[in-house]
């Protein structure tokens, strides 16, 4: 959440000024498969104690006994800090892995630990610069390499851990770009679709017709569908934000796709920068064209919150509601399975 205080426009400018090393290792690295039998290559895994086990209530979740799984694909944490000048992250970068674990795994993946066993692979994520670079060839190679790892991790999960269990796909930002490809390649229009409880594809625009046979969810309990939103300050308009209604936007307080305003009193708990405290009644929500609107929340330090792009808080703002909803959809899936 501290990243909320960094202007995305400033970040984009700094990235455009940075000089990156030539992409001279893709051809070698593309044949270098990560070994996902190694627990060190998982940011979260039911066979290890990790940040996804934590809860704001202070009682770690024991999700090994849960009947479903969650395959979580984390967002970009490789953003150009010291020595981060390659197109793809080093899977063995301890400092970066710690940042990922204490950030997105703790604050995002943990929202699903009441719904299922969490599997979150480490992967050679593309540098955030790949989203802004004019070097489209190198950018594509960077994203392809990152997806290759995610794909291999998912295949390993299916072969060694799934055992026919139903599962959730959950992702944010860059993770959602990879999740879309994963769903299209392995789940949509395949027998595996019957095991998909729901997909939470957050932080990136996902078209309503992105998948042939997986549509946006219509309510809080529907299964076999997907959910998506991108959060901005109320009143903000994107240049891309035409009123064509082509992008799927779910209201995380009502779990519908209509444009009805839902007040903050429906928000069961928001996470800020202190993981051990949930703040109820803090953030509202309303679907507007192709994005989700939220009024600027008031909390200690919010006076410094200048950005209108709440991307970094897509999960944090609606943390407890997500946790309840994921659990509800698993319960409904299992109930329908028994009928």
The ordered H/E elements are HHEEHEHEHEEEEEEEH
Number of strands: 11
Share of β-strand residues? 5-15%
Give the oligomeric state of the chains in this entry, treating copies of one chain as homo and distinct chains as hetero: single chain
Q: For the largest beta sheet, what order do the strands appear in spatially? A: 1-3-2-4-5-6
Question: How would you sum up the global shape?
Answer: globular
What does this structure look like?
The protein has 339 residues and is of the alpha/beta class. The chain has one domain (2-338). 26% of the residues lie in helices and 13% in strands. The protein has 6 helices and 11 strands. It has helices spanning 8-17, 26-29, 94-107, 136-162, 174-187, 319-338; strands at residues 42-44, 69-73, 117-121, 167-172, 196-202, 225-227, 231-233, 270-271, 278-279, 286-288, 291-294. The strands form 3 sheets. Strands 1-3-2-4-5-6 form a 6-stranded mixed beta sheet, sandwiched between helices. The protein has a 3-stranded mixed beta sheet with strand order 7-11-10, with no helix packed on it. A two-stranded antiparallel sheet has the order 8-9. A hairpin with a 2-residue loop joins strand 10 and strand 11. Helix 4 (136-162) packs across helix 5.
């Amino acid at each position: 959440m501290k990243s909320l205080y960094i202007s995305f426009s400033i970040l984009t400018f700094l990235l455009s000024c940075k000089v990156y090393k030539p992409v001279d290792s893709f051809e070698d690295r593309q044949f270098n498969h990560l070994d996902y039998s190694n627990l060190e290559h998982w940011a979260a895994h039911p066979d290890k104690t990790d940040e996804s086990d934590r809860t704001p209530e202070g009682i770690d979740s024991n999700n090994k006994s849960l009947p479903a799984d969650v395959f979580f694909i984390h967002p970009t944490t490789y953003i150009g800090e010291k020595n981060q000048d390659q197109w793809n992250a080093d899977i063995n970068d301890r400092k970066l892995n710690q940042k990922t674990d204490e950030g997105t795994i703790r604050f995002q993946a943990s929202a699903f630990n009441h719904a299922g066993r969490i599997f979150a692979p480490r992967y050679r994520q593309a540098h955030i610069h790949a989203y802004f670079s004019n070097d489209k060839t190198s950018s594509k190679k960077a994203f392809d390499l990152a997806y290759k790892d995610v794909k291999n991790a998912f295949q390993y999960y299916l072969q060694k851990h799934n055992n026919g269990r139903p599962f959730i796909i959950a992702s944010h930002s860059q993770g959602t770009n990879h999740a879309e490809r994963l769903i299209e390649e392995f789940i949509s229009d395949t027998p595996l679709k019957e095991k998909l409880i729901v997909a939470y594809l957050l932080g990136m625009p996902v078209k309503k017709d992105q998948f042939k046979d997986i549509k946006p969810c219509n309510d809080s309990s529907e299964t076999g569908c997907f959910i998506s939103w991108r959060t901005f300050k109320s009143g903000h308009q994107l240049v891309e934000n035409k009123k064509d209604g082509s992008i799927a936007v779910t209201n995380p307080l009502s779990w519908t796709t209509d444009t009805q305003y839902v007040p903050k009193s429906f928000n069961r708990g928001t996470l800020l920068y202190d993981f051990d405290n949930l703040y109820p009644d803090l953030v509202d929500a309303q679907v507007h064209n192709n994005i989700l609107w939220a009024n600027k929340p008031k909390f200690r330090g919010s006076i410094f919150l200048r950005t209108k792009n709440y991307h970094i808080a897509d999960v944090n703002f609606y943390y407890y509601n997500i946790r309840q909803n994921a659990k509800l959809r698993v319960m409904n899936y299992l109930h329908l399975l028994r009928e």
